[in-house]
TrEMBL record:
Regions that span the bilayer: 7-26, 46-64, 89-115, 127-144
Keyword Glycoprotein: no
Name of the protein in its database record: DUF1468 domain-containing protein
Name of a matching Pfam family: TctB
InterPro entries noted in UniProt: DUF1468 (IPR009936)
Domain of life assignment: Bacteria
Domain DUF1468: residue ranges: 10-152
Annotated source species: Butyricicoccus faecihominis
Amino acid sequence: MKVKLNSNMITGVLFLIVSVALHILIPSQIRTYETSAVTAATVPTLLIRGMILCSVILLVQGILSKEKTEYTISGAIFTKENLLRLKPVIYIAMLIAYALLLPHIGFIISSLLLANGILLYFGTRKWWFYAIASANVIVAYFAFQAMSVTLP
């Protein structure tokens, strides 16, 4: 199956999905008992509605554009070219895993795993890069301790 898309269409759809989800979540995240016209949820609501508007404009602009790339959807998903395109997705998955692990295993261990895991994932071969990343985590931990900020 062949599909013609451009970056504006893809970005417009992704941000439209995110902004609609955020718009739906606002009432549960920002509870206000105020009855005035301007409440604590007013500015976030306006910003997200602006984001919806910009997403729709971007999507329409992408649909009306003549420059589109043709993609063939087939069963060959795990080609080397497609795996290289997944690098940002895997990086985001590492960040999500970090956020999920942080409360359970603590700041030092989860940050060491993230910093060194990212270096390993992107193919860093110099050992002192790993040492610097690990030292930064330790220094950050003790800096926050010195400021009496509790880390998980």
